[in-house]
Structures are given as structure tokens and as C-alpha cells.
């Protein structure tokens, strides 16, 4: 089972920061600027966890997660929501997200959630 993350966020600066964070921790990852790009990558590669921003142009993160779940129901999605919008995070979890993180990101919290999501994804794949 490959341990590869997909980070989906329309903010280039944020993707760059997250890329450095993952590289320092030797986490394999790909980046997408939006849902369509993410769907293309998912079609070409194996990811176990997707970290998805909620507010993006086009399909938002919740809608995009629904599209991903249609083709990869076992894939775990962690949604990122800004503006202290806990409600959006909870809505996302009701619709199938593994968990959510608030922006600005607490990196340690995000990493912990990624590890937990990976455990669950590995359990689904192996079970």
C-alpha cells in the first residue's frame, strides 16, 4: 500500500509551505491546485490520504470529496477549513471526511490526523 498524500489547495503559497513541511518529514506527496487536477492525479497514481481545502473556485472541497469518494470510496480525506469555520468541518465529516483541520494549520495536529487516516486507509485496504 503506497503511503502518498495528495494536497489540494488553490493557494500557491500555502501549497509551497505544505510541500516544505512534507519534504522535511520525508512524506511522499503530490500537489493539485483544484478539484479537476486532483481527480486527474487520482486517476494516475495511488494515494491513501487527501488533504483538501474547502474553499476553492469551481468545485469546493466538500463537492470534490464527494467526486473522489465515487471512484475511491476507501480514500481518506482530511478537509481544511479557514475562518474558524468548525461547522464546515463537521458538515464535511458527515459527508465522509476522515477529519478536518482549521486554517491557520497546526502542523502537528495535521500530521497526527494524517497518520490516523493512513491507519484507517490501510485497515480498509487490508481488511
Provide a short characterization of the protein structure.
The protein is α/β, with parallel strands linked by helices and 127 residues long. Helix content is 50%, strand content 20%.
Describe this structure in words.
The chain is α/β, with parallel strands linked by helices. It contains 5 helices and 5 strands. It has helices spanning 12-24, 35-44, 61-71, 86-94, 107-126; strands spanning 4-8, 28-32, 49-53, 76-81, 99-102. Strands 2-1-3-4-5 form a 5-stranded parallel sheet, with helices on both faces. Helix 2 (35-44) packs parallel to helix 3 (61-71). The chain starts with a strand and ends with a helix. The model has no long low-confidence stretch (mean pLDDT 92).
Amino acid at each position: 500500500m503506497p503511503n502518498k498524500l495528495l494536497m489540494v489547495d488553490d493557494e500557491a503559497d500555502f501549497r509551497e509551505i505544505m510541500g516544505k513541511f512534507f519534504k522535511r518529514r520525508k512524506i511522499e506527496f503530490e500537489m493539485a491546485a483544484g478539484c479537476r487536477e486532483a481527480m486527474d492525479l487520482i486517476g494516475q497514481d495511488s494515494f491513501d490520504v487527501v488533504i483538501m481545502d474547502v474553499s476553492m473556485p469551481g468545485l469546493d472541497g466538500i463537492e470534490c470529496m464527494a467526486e473522489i469518494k465515487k471512484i475511491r470510496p476507501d480514500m481518506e480525506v482530511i478537509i481544511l477549513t479557514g475562518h474558524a469555520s468548525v461547522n464546515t468541518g463537521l458538515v464535511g465529516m458527515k459527508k465522509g471526511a476522515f477529519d478536518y483541520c482549521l486554517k491557520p494549520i497546526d502542523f502537528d495536529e495535521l500530521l497526527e490526523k494524517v497518520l490516523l487516516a493512513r491507519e484507517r486507509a490501510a485497515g480498509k485496504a487490508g481488511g
